[in-house]
Amino acid sequence: MAGQGQREPMVVTHEGGLRFVAQIREHRVVTDQPLGKGENAGPMPVELLGASLGTCVALYVQQFCHTRGLPYDGMRVEVQQRGAQNPNRVGLFELKVVLPQGIPEEYREMLERVARSCPAHNTLAHGAEVSVQIEAGQAAPV
Fold first, then answer.
1. What is the pLDDT of residue 2?
2. How many other β-carbons are positioned within 10 Å of the β-carbon of residue 45?
């Protein structure tokens, strides 16, 4: 994204079963599969796409409201992911931004543009190249 300096890569390691941990700066994010397949120790990896989109939209909408003195306490973003096949993927993200009372109607169209302008939305809507390299070497220390 524009304006971001070079950061250390996120590092994903296996913790056993179907559980993986992504180390993002000083933050540890656990992923797993639902009970029956995994231990349900965290969201499935693909669910983090919806979480990223929802939190990015929420940030942009909150900042828009904040700079204009509009209410945003109690705001929430609901994200529904719909699957698709061939290839297996998320085919649709449905977002609903629920704002508190007191937002004038004339801001609705502008708020939709703001929600669609966040980097996560732009990445999903316009695509991103993905480069994969397979490297044989030492495993990460446990």
1. 52
2. 15
